[in-house]
Amino acid sequence: MSATRYTYLGPAGTFTEAALHTLPEAATRELVPLPSVPAALDAVRAGEAAGAFVAIENSVEGAVTATADELANGAPLMIYREVLLPISFALLVRPGTELTDVKRVTSHPVAQPQVRGWLRDNLPDAVWEAAASNADGARLVQEGQADGAFAGEFAAALYGLEPLATDIHDAAEATTRFVLVGRPGRVSSPTGADKTSMVVWLGDNHPGALLELLQEFAVRGVNLMRIESRPTGHGLGNYCFSIDCEGHLTERRVSETLMGLRRICPQIRFLGSYPRADRREPTPRQPGTSNQDFDRAADWLARCLDGRGEA
Amino acid sequence: MSATRYTYLGPAGTFTEAALHTLPEAATRELVPLPSVPAALDAVRAGEAAGAFVAIENSVEGAVTATADELANGAPLMIYREVLLPISFALLVRPGTELTDVKRVTSHPVAQPQVRGWLRDNLPDAVWEAAASNADGARLVQEGQADGAFAGEFAAALYGLEPLATDIHDAAEATTRFVLVGRPGRVSSPTGADKTSMVVWLGDNHPGALLELLQEFAVRGVNLMRIESRPTGHGLGNYCFSIDCEGHLTERRVSETLMGLRRICPQIRFLGSYPRADRREPTPRQPGTSNQDFDRAADWLARCLDGRGEA
Amino acid sequence: MSATRYTYLGPAGTFTEAALHTLPEAATRELVPLPSVPAALDAVRAGEAAGAFVAIENSVEGAVTATADELANGAPLMIYREVLLPISFALLVRPGTELTDVKRVTSHPVAQPQVRGWLRDNLPDAVWEAAASNADGARLVQEGQADGAFAGEFAAALYGLEPLATDIHDAAEATTRFVLVGRPGRVSSPTGADKTSMVVWLGDNHPGALLELLQEFAVRGVNLMRIESRPTGHGLGNYCFSIDCEGHLTERRVSETLMGLRRICPQIRFLGSYPRADRREPTPRQPGTSNQDFDRAADWLARCLDGRGEA
Amino acid sequence: MSATRYTYLGPAGTFTEAALHTLPEAATRELVPLPSVPAALDAVRAGEAAGAFVAIENSVEGAVTATADELANGAPLMIYREVLLPISFALLVRPGTELTDVKRVTSHPVAQPQVRGWLRDNLPDAVWEAAASNADGARLVQEGQADGAFAGEFAAALYGLEPLATDIHDAAEATTRFVLVGRPGRVSSPTGADKTSMVVWLGDNHPGALLELLQEFAVRGVNLMRIESRPTGHGLGNYCFSIDCEGHLTERRVSETLMGLRRICPQIRFLGSYPRADRREPTPRQPGTSNQDFDRAADWLARCLDGRGEA
After folding, report:
1. Preceding omega of A11 cis (within 30 degrees of 0)
2. Residue A219: how many CA atoms within 13 Å on its side-chain side?
3. In the 8-state DSSP scheme, what is residue D73?
4. How many contacts does C have with D, using Cβ atoms within 8 A?
5. In 10 A of CB C93, how many CB atoms?
6. GO MF annotations for this entry (chains A, B, C, D) (predicted)?
7. Taking CB atoms and an 8 Å limit, are C186 and D307 in contact across chains?
8. Chain Cα centroid distance, residue C184
9. Contact A258/B294, CB-based, under 8 Å?
10. How far is D24 from D191, CA to CA, in rounded Å?
11. In the 3-class helix/strand/coil scheme, how is A122-170 assigned residue by residue?
């Protein structure tokens, strides 16, 4: 049944699957690994799954460009939930292997910069080779094609391996952010600690366009949480921006900002308002930009129209 | 009956009275000259008159500060109509007087800079003296205390005088703007060519406050038509700004701007939306800031909330 | 000798003269009262005086428009010094006069709003009449044409009068600011607590022009201390702005700002950098805008040109 | 000799090598392919090569993040030249192979999105497999492990292959931009059509920081040509920006902008001013922001300091 199916970027045993299991409803869904981000999202577009769970950014490697580009193009999708997962690696080995036995190690290329320092300090002579995913690296160790795989500790059992070292990560606070994506639908109610995502295109060759775009946020005191530029595919120098801001589309300061963007940008795609994984409530730093300030100003306007502006 | 009474800055025979007569309804009102702008406005505040007609700015002399300060302070009032009057003077003399007879001339001090050039060229030896108003100057000529008065040509008959020269004005396009002021009431319908007036106070000692205030207009493409700074009376360096912008409070781009000002400024007084005397329709110069753009963006927002943002 | 002569807006016995005497060098100058601001300034332009001392703004009444307009137009002049004078009035009477004897009072019209409250409380039945200056009001009392004159207490002796009440002022902190004006010359050295004055014209009909002008200041963290709009005399809606900002033309943040204004405005007139009367040092509120920050950035730029930007 | 050695991202036969050969001096240099961008750049840092030639952005795939991150971190480097290369692919096969024989095709993963449409239309049943580089894909075809490789037509001879189809590219105008990087040195003279590159860090958690950064450019009319956000590696939400703007560091409008960035940003790295590959001269779109405008303003400032501002 597609209504109970979630796709995700597989295979099983990756950080994506681990992150997906932190969503309570994952327990009652059929979780289907697929080989690529486009495949996971296309299953949703085709109605074969209710949701797709994919990484969208990493604090070390940056945007997951496949996800950013898929959300910006093709049939529209919306984000309904986000998950933050601190990333640290275990070195998984076949039972009985000792550190001095490890000559060849493997991982997904994205993991490599995060374990480089650990390798230099602990296995300076080991040879690193790329795997299609961290889980696939574990499989290579299981099959004897490598001696150690950098992967999540949770992948050990799945492949009959043991962690020889854990909590490996070069950058402190390495975190990956995942999103649950579905077909467009009615925006759910605000929780008080929400986030809004969008893709905004700049007009061709308008030098101040990015500045104007940012002013729409600034004048309403709406803080940006993420901004990633992506080429539009129409020649060097043409960008769109994937943006997350704090707040919910039903809040006046957010809706006024998005209407402003819609007016000045040639194209905008609203990607959803959804609860922040960190549950932090936005703290407007400029005077006059809280939700209460917006509501009071609207009340005042109504009184002005009636000649009671000073009441 | 106060409902049919309009006060104005007298005496009869001034440019103010001439401008007031250009309003069609003036024909059916009791027109009461009063000796000062505060007196004319206080009669409205006290319910003794339905409207007060006063000058608010002059293209040569600048703001009529008494009017600006009265509208900014005291019990609230609203502007309902404006009149533009090109200002040119006649030299009024007793019948039979020739130019060579004119030794002493008089006018209100405000008129003096506008006739200075004409005097230098035509009456280099005449002595100028101040009068309480241009009409009062005509009275002084009538009584023989001066030989010529600079006043509106329309004042001649009232004082038994004749114009010896007409169309006297040093600055081309010298214009005075007058407003009809009443007690606060429901804002009337937009005409498509309207103007909105307000007074805005800046917070004490916030250096960027004026910049932020102007950005509220700029980000919505609302053009300023007039901005006058006035001291607040609380020490040097503390100002409020008397502002006219194009558009009507019922237009989204104007109402959003005023709500923005209300949020960021410690105090704001809405002084009315009323038809422009020049009947020019506003021409938004930035893309994305027409009323239609604002309406389309609001429609799009409603669709986004329903998950149909791309429909 | 013109080199030792200072003109001022007379007559003797006014606040202007009192303020002028606070300048140390006034003791060694010939002080010449003249009947108008233009007359005082034209004497400097003509080389008949080394300086002119005139009021430029008042915390209650606003700009002294004659001074603002004279500095903006005609042959260029520069400001070399400023003086702040707290304004409070004395009621001057002929010796022996008691409060109950005072039926007619007089003052310059500008003084009237500042004594209105005192009159209402202390002499509710007295009739007020305009005088050409506060000192001239004292003369009228001396001659018996009025019973009391509102003027500076220092004027009493000059006219054989006595103060019946002192320290009269409706607004707390009423202050008038005066400037010493001379022909343009080399800018004197900065003192660390300086002010820079200028007049800036906006391009015709460019709606965002004032915003852009203010951004030149804001981006360099230069605080505005005064901004007054004045009509240019070319029709309603055309303004120039008389501006004081903190800092000295020899400071990088000030010179960069003025060069920015010069680039974007059709016309600018530099009116001088001179010591602040309040001796307060500017306190840049934005990070990165102190003089030291500007100097460090210039050093860094020089290193970059040599390929040593990270040194 | 290191002074005549250029490293590049190998192997031979890639687009990088083809682009490098468009530089005249490449003919007299020893060209050394290295297996990664960091390896190519580290050889320069270590003094083993005079320059490294690497891709920096692609109009379809976006930033080459390895290059961006290497230039932002580690020992400083500078860009001295750029090359633009239009990207189109040939399908390289062993001599005698026909289209119907092609069952397995290969290329670098970055090439895959650019040939996806061609594959769907011409070889719908072929299986695509990843290669380490496009040149490596050609080697796989040579060795019989694949039937066709998407690579530059210039790679055919190197591997004994023939182009079966040419000019394959899904996106029109697909272009890759390469840069020649060296150790920091004196900035060379401007050509009139130059570009300046830098990396700028935003302060932690300052919401308006990106807006302020862009205003430094906007207020001097300096157009951005590229802006790419990169995570700093210190947790989600912390970015630096890799920026190219038009103009040369020796132009006042550029140097003033960079000094402004240096003042307000916690960290900035100047990456060089060098000739634009497209040889287009910058066209300032805002009035008052040409080099001539900047020079005139500086002249005026010098006159103001001497009291001759109106001369």
Report:
1. yes
2. 29
3. S
4. 102
5. 24
6. prephenate dehydratase activity
7. yes
8. 18
9. no
10. 17
11. HCCCCEEEECCCHHHHHHHHHCCCCCEEEECCCHHHHCCCEEEEEEECC
Question: Which pair of tokens denotes residue B176?
Answer: 């005075």
Q: What is the pLDDT of residues D119-164, one digit of tens each?
A: 999 999 998 887 777 888 999 999 999 999 999 999 999 999 999 9
Reduce the DSSP state of residue A85 to 3 states and report it. Answer: strand
Test D270 with C304 for CB contact under 8 angstroms.
yes
- C207: Cα within 13 Å, side-chain hemisphere: 20
A76: its two tokens: 């529209």
Top mean-pLDDT range of A131-145, B63-77, D17-31, D233-247: D17-31
CA dist., res. B114 & res. B59, Å (int): 11
Chains B and D physically touch (3 or more Cβ atom pairs below 8 Å): no
Tokens of D172: 């029109």
- Residue B154, judged by CB atoms within 10 A of its CB (0-12, 13-18, 19+), counts as middle
pLDDT per residue as tens digits for the range C245-270: 999 999 999 999 999 999 999 999 99
Residue D124 CA, distance from chain mean position = 33
Instruction: Find, among D252, D253, D267, D286, the residue nearest to D209 by Cα.
Output: D267
Contact between residue D56 and residue D43 where contact means Cβ atoms under 8 Å apart: no
pLDDT score at D101: 95
Nearest CA in chain D to A220: D208
Nearest to A307 among B186, B262, B265 (CB): B186
3-state SS class at C231: strand
pLDDT along chain A (311 residues), means of 10: 86 91 95 90 96 89 82 95 94 96 88 86 89 86 95 93 92 87 94 96 76 93 88 80 94 96 94 94 79 94 92 71
Q: How far apart are CA D204 and CA D216, in angstroms?
A: 19
Which residue do the tokens 């650990």 mark?
A118
Neighbours of C144 (CB within 10 A): 8
Q: What is the ipTM of this complex?
A: 0.88
* 8 Å CB contact between D171 and A233: yes
Residue of chain C whose alpha carbon sits nearest to that of B58: C236
All structural domains of chain B: 1-86+174-185 (3.40.190.10), 89-168 (3.40.190.10), 187-310 (3.30.70.260)
- Shortest Cα–Cα distance, C214 to chain B (Å): 6
Q: For residue C34, what are the CA distances in angstroms to C14, C29, C263?
A: 12, 15, 38
- For A308, the closest of B184, B219, B258 (CB atoms) is B184
Which residue do the tokens 């994984």 mark? A277
Residues of B in contact with A286 (CB under 8 A): 264
Tokens (6 digits) for C262: 């010069």
d(CA C89, CA C108): 12
Contact B236, C177 (CB under 8 A): yes
Largest CA distance in chain C: 85
What is the gyration radius of the CA atoms in chain D, in angstroms?
Answer: 23
Angle in degrees, CA A259, A262, A264, rounded to 5? 110
Q: Strand locations in chain B, DSSP E? A: 5-9, 30-34, 51-58, 62-63, 78-86, 89-93, 104-107, 127-130, 148-151, 162-168, 175-182, 194-201, 224-231, 239-246, 267-275
Task: List C246's β-bridge partners, or say none.
Answer: C195
- The region, left, alpha or beta by phi > 0 then psi within -120 to 50, assigned to residue D214 is alpha
